Backbone:
């Protein structure tokens, strides 16, 4: 019998949860293709290592951008390979629940569902990431109580207040971790005249990036290509410089959280004082983001124990009782 699977098909990472087993795959959402033969050379971590280091006929791409499919065929091939990695074959077609951002359109929802079915799933249902994140964070979303989650992903950031099993207030923007990386690349290029790659920008973010001042800050040595001479050059960056560089995307995320709170009914807004705000997603691990949000909202912000896996764990709990919770899934029949 085929295993039921939950997939968090993220812009940055793809995670797969198998019923009764837990998370069985956690890989970057990257696929490497030979543009001449159209063959798949690698996916996941192996393909991620190739970004910015390939000859002209090999391209390492992210088929999802801003939480949406930008290349349907490549996404379908990536989902198929991901399913094969976890043991799916044409004789073993599982039912699949896929986590999607609430910001995507009805057309994009159909594209995700169709890609999963063509890749080998017998049935594909969608669940919105804020709902899955709240379930994964063990929040009492079925009670008449305001529960708020902020999910900062690679391409989208979503703030949602949930009560009685549904979303009461939602603010979703197509700004995420990749926009923070791009802001670092742009700032280093503008201020120092040095070009750095996507992977280097991400390393800078992880090493010294922060949304607010934090204890024990250190400087980082960065290597890139000088634009004037075209030669390699090394510079040293300070955390306060990176805070200036990423202020625009971080401010956009903070503003979306404030906008979501402003949409909520007063009774639910006051619940946040006791319940707090729960920060999930890979982008939620940005150093000092909880401090910045807490200072702006005046509400306690708690980062969940496993921010990156929280969404897929929530969807995984749904597939444990697939039929009973089918009403929560956002398949085409509900649109």
Residues:
């Amino acid at each position: 019998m085929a295993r039921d699977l939950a997939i968090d098909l993220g812009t940055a990472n793809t995670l797969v949860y198998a019923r009764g087993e837990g998370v069985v795959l956690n890989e970057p959402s990257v696929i490497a293709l030979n543009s001449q033969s159209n063959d798949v050379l690698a996916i996941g971590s192996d393909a991620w290592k190739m970004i910015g280091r390939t000859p002209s006929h090999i391209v390492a791409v992210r088929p999802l951008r801003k939480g949406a499919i930008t290349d349907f065929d490549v996404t379908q091939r990536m989902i198929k390979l991901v399913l094969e990695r976890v043991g799916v074959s044409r004789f073993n077609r599982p039912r699949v629940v896929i986590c999607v951002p609430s910001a995507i359109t009805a057309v994009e929802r159909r594209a995700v569902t169709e890609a999963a079915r063509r890749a080998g799933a017998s049935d594909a249902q969608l669940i919105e990431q804020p709902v899955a994140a709240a379930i994964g964070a063990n929040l009492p979303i079925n009670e008449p109580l305001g529960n708020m989650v902020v999910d900062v992903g690679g391409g989208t950031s979503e703030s949602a207040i949930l009560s009685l099993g549904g979303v009461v207030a939602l603010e979703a923007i197509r700004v995420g971790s990749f926009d923070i990386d791009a802001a670092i690349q742009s700032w280093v290029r503008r201020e120092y005249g040095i070009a750095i790659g996507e992977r280097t920008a991400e390393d800078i973010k992880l090493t010294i990036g922060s949304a607010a001042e934090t204890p024990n800050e250190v400087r980082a040595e960065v290597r890139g290509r000088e634009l004037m001479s075209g030669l390699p050059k090394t510079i040293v960056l300070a955390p306060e410089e990176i805070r200036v560089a990423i202020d625009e995307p971080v401010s956009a995320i903070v503003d979306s959280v404030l906008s979501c709170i402003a949409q909520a009914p007063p009774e639910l807004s006051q619940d946040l004082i006791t319940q707090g705000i729960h920060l999930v997603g890979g982008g939620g691990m940005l150093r000092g983001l909880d401090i910045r949000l807490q200072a702006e909202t005046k509400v306690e912000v708690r980062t969940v124990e496993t921010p990156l896996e929280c969404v897929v764990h929530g969807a995984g709990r749904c597939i444990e009782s697939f039929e009973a919770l089918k009403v929560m899934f956002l398949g085409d029949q509900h649109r």
User: Anything to note?
Assistant: DSSP finds eleven helices and 18 strands in the chain.
